[in-house]
């Protein structure tokens, strides 16, 4: 049955490998189960309900991706989107969280329409080769930077902005242990290296007192405080809501496209520069966003952490099924999940995630291999690619990296007399990105 559903032999994988990959993906994205409630609760939402909505919505989204597109690409509420939802829309602009959820729902509905007409799929198909290879590399640098920060290896500095952290700190030493273990396992070609490394780091953390054991089973929190509590905003009373909905669309469009391209390249899923069944994958993402708004969470999007499961051998939707099941189990095994994904407070404003951080650093390394396919001798290709992969980690945003890449690619091709080499959609989005920076970015 599994062979018929997921074509395992055709994809060169096995049930065991897919299970390990699904577990690995779950371990590297499980932090969202705890981060999401913390962020959205600042907007006045019930923390427990958000946690339940996050797990249920993510599981439904992954099952959609598994059975519609047969890809090992996990979905969950997007980091960055949740901060825009809370700190910009709710806290700065004063929009009630119920109306903010309504705006997310409208954006998701528009995503569904865009998926049906194939616009998002078209964007993926017309991406220049240089940008298509720079996007996964940029995502890799972004993942690695977050991993280094969560490990405490990189910290802020008033003069240089970043500097080396305290290597003698216990959480940092635990992260270094995990990094060494995973690196050695990869060097020896051990399957499931990332998952094994995470588990080994957890055990050592328990022994060293850096990871707190808080039990095994707990009752799942109620979703009632956020379930169907969204309110469709009246854009005629508050025209600013139009811009809010547009930005929700804008962010999810390019984060999703960038992630699908990056993860697709990493997994070897791209065929002649295109992702087969891309429309189904994008449709899954779109439906998940609207569903998440109904249940009580911000924009759901494809997750770059899927690269960890792919690195562990995941190639089909069965990986997603495993991750989805674990997401639902997380509702009942909250203490164990919290043990692995829990943060370790250092000082007043710094929280480290020593168990998960090493996996993110290694994933970043794995995703940099695409830079060898960039034509570095053609400056109309290499400069946009460079800006793309550089701006993602420095701005902590996939969207900004793509924006700089699109704008510079269109500009350099035009001024060099090679404008016809660029698809008109690239010009359109380059203009939209410029307009965004002029009118929408403060």
The helix content, as a percent range, equals 55-70%
Largest sheet: 2 strands, antiparallel
Which sequence of SSEs, written as H and E, runs from N to C?
Answer: HHHHEHHHHEEHHHHEHHHEEHHHH
Uncertain regions: pLDDT < 50 for 5+ in a row?
none
Task: Give the tally of β-strands.
Answer: 6
State the distance separating the first and last CA atoms: 53 Å
Give the helix/strand class: mainly alpha
Name the overall outline: globular
* Rg over CA atoms: 21 Å
The largest beta-sheet arranges its strands as 1-4
> How many helices?
19
Strand content of the residues, in percent? Answer: under 5%
Mean pLDDT across residues: 85
Question: What this model shows, in words?
Answer:
The protein has 442 residues and is mainly α. The chain has 19 helices and 6 strands. It has helices spanning 2-6, 15-29, 32-41, 47-69, 81-90, 97-117, 119-126, 129-151, 170-187, 193-208, 240-267, 278-295, 306-311, 317-329, 334-341, 357-366, 379-395, 398-415, 424-440; strands at residues 75-77, 154-157, 161-164, 300-302, 344-346, 350-352. α6 packs across α11 and α6 (97-117) runs antiparallel to α12. The longest helix is centred in the middle third of the chain and has 28 residues, at 240-267.
Search tags:
442 residues; 5% strand
List the helices and strands and how they pair.
Layout: H1 2-6, H2 15-29, H3 32-41, H4 47-69, E1 75-77, H5 81-90, H6 97-117, H7 119-126, H8 129-151, E2 154-157, E3 161-164, H9 170-187, H10 193-208, H11 240-267, H12 278-295, E4 300-302, H13 306-311, H14 317-329, H15 334-341, E5 344-346, E6 350-352, H16 357-366, H17 379-395, H18 398-415, H19 424-440
Antiparallel strand pairs: 1-4, 2-3, 5-6
């Amino acid at each position: 049955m599994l062979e018929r559903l997921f074509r395992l032999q055709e994809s060169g994988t096995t049930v065991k490998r897919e299970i390990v990959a699904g577990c690995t993906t779950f371990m590297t994205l499980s932090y969202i189960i705890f981060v999401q409630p913390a962020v959205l609760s600042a907007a006045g939402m019930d923390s427990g309900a958000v946690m339940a909505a996050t797990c249920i919505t993510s599981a439904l989204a992954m099952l959609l991706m598994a059975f519609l597109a047969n890809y090992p690409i996990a979905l969950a509420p997007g980091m960055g989107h949740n901060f825009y939802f809370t700190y910009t829309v709710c806290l700065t602009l004063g929009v009630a969280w119920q109306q903010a959820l309504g705006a997310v729902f409208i954006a998701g509905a528009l995503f569904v329409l865009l998926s049906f007409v194939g616009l998002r799929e078209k964007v993926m198909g017309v991406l220049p080769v240089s940008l298509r290879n720079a996007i996964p590399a940029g995502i890799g640098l972004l993942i690695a930077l977050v991993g280094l920060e969560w490990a405490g290896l990189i910290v802020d500095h008033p003069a240089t902005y970043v500097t080396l952290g305290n290597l003698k700190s216990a959480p940092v030493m635990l992260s270094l242990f995990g990094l060494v273990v995973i690196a050695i396992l990869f060097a020896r070609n051990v399957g499931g290296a990332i998952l094994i490394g995470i588990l080994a780091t957890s055990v050592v953390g328990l022994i060293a007192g850096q990871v707190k054991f808080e039990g095994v089973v707990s009752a799942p929190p109620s979703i009632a405080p956020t379930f169907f509590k969204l309110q469709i905003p009246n854009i005629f009373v508050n025209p600013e809501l139009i811009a809010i909905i547009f930005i929700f669309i804008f962010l999810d469009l390019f984060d999703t496209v960038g992630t699908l391209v990056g993860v697709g390249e990493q997994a070897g899923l791209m065929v002649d520069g295109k992702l087969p069944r891309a429309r189904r994958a994008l449709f899954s993402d779109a439906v998940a966003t609207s569903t998440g708004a109904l249940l009580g969470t911000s924009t759901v999007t494809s997750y770059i952490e899927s690269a960890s499961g792919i690195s562990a051998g995941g190639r089909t939707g069965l990986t997603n099924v495993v991750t989805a099941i674990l997401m639902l189990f997380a509702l009942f095994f909250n203490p164990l999940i919290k043990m692995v994904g829990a943060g370790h407070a250092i000082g007043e404003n710094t929280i480290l995630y020593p168990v998960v951080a090493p996996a993110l650093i290694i994933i970043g390394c794995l995703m940099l291999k695409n830079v060898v396919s960039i034509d570095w001798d053609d400056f109309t290709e290499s400069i946009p690619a460079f800006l793309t992969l550089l701006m993602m980690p420095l701005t902590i945003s996939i969207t900004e990296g793509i924006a700089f890449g699109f704008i510079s690619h269109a500009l350099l091709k035009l001024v060099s007399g090679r404008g016809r080499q660029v698809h008109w959609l690239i010009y359109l989005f380059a203009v939209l990105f410029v307009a965004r920076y002029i009118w929408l970015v403060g």
